[in-house]
Design goal:
Structural class: mainly alpha
Helix content: 55-70%
Radius of gyration: 19 Å
Mean pLDDT: 89
Order of helices and strands: HHHHHHHHHHHHHHH
Low-confidence stretches: 1-5
Number of helices: 15
Largest sheet: none
Number of strands: 0
């Protein structure tokens, strides 16, 4: 399917709005910014607009405001999204994120309902929801990350005639789940400090980790390594399924997705090698390894592997 529609060139106000979104993306999401550098300019701008709007939603949920105020701000953000969807945002409006996202939605078939799902997921955080089973956590991950995968697919599109392209949204959704579960593992200690717990309660009980993660060492008697490696295995299965999206994308879009997903997949390898590292601090990937992941994406290595190793 086609990814971009015929649109006029950027006005100075649109250029400034997109530039603002690119700055936000570069400052707040290094892995994401690293991946979208591989895209053509129009797609890169649209992805930055999506990120900037999503970042706004996340910042409301993660901020220090009272819950009632957070709910009010999220309602205002949902109202703004309605205006964007209705085409009510002028190029010279004062909100650069709204201006950029409205233009991106004009140029690409972006399913903006996915941003409503993101708001729904952040409301789960505001309400302090916890998750008893993987099925419950999966629903949350679909809201906050799977939806972002489907939004991104609206920018990327699929290669005309790609076999199985009707399943591309499903694979994009699954890849988002894989990234989010990796995030949850990486941020165990940080989330615990904020009073949040995402891993399924049934898994915490099974591995004796019910005391939480507010310490630099696992709780005595717990099989923390087993818990983490169980989640790593779950995430790897999600990656394996989600990677089936790659052959359906054009070369540069596929390279972008492969780079972002590859960075997180390698983070999983680091976490699996030393599970307790997530309690000592944030696990990250060195810049040379990120560059290697980008090279693999550009070379199409991950896309070819996805074709060979279908679940």
């Amino acid at each position: 399917m086609s990814t971009v529609t015929t649109s006029p060139p950027l006005s100075p106000s649109l250029t400034a709005a997109y530039r603002y979104c690119e700055i936000v993306t570069g400052q707040q999401a290094r892995n994401f910014a690293y991946g979208i550098r591989l895209l053509p300019a129009a797609e890169r701008r649209a992805m930055s607009a999506l990120y900037a709007f999503s970042r706004r939603v996340d910042d409301i949920g993660d901020g220090s405001l009272d819950d009632a105020v957070k709910e009010s701000r999220l309602k205002e953000t949902r109202d703004l999204l309605r205006q964007i969807r209705a085409g009510e945002i002028a190029d010279d409006a004062t909100d650069p994120v709204a201006v950029a996202l409205a233009d991106a939605a004009d140029r690409f078939p972006i399913p903006l309902d996915g941003l409503d799902e993101l708001i729904d997921g952040v409301l789960m955080d505001v309400h302090g929801r916890s998750y008893e089973t993987w099925e419950e956590l999966r629903d949350y991950c679909r809201c906050v990350a799977g939806a972002v995968g489907r939004l991104s697919l609206g920018v990327f599109g699929t290669v005309p005639g790609a076999p199985g392209a009707e399943r591309a949204p499903q694979f994009a959704d699954t890849l988002g789940l894989a990234l989010q579960l990796t995030n949850i593992l990486r941020d165990l200690r940080e989330d615990a400090a904020e009073g949040r717990s995402y891993l399924p309660a049934e898994d915490l009980r099974a591995y004796g980790c019910t005391d939480g993660f507010n310490r630099s060492q696992p709780q005595p008697g717990a099989d923390f390594d087993g818990l983490v490696r169980f989640q790593v295995h779950r995430a790897r299965r999600l990656f394996a399924d989600g990677y089936r999206l790659l052959p359906m994308l054009d070369r540069r879009s596929g390279a972008c997705v492969a780079a972002m997903a590859g960075i997180y997949h390698r983070l999983l390898d680091h976490i699996a090698a030393d599970p307790a590292a997530v309690l000592r601090g944030r696990v990250s990937l060195p810049a040379p390894q990120k560059a290697l992941v980008a090279v693999r994406g550009l070379a199409g290595l991950d896309a070819r592997r996805a074709v060979r190793k279908r679940p």
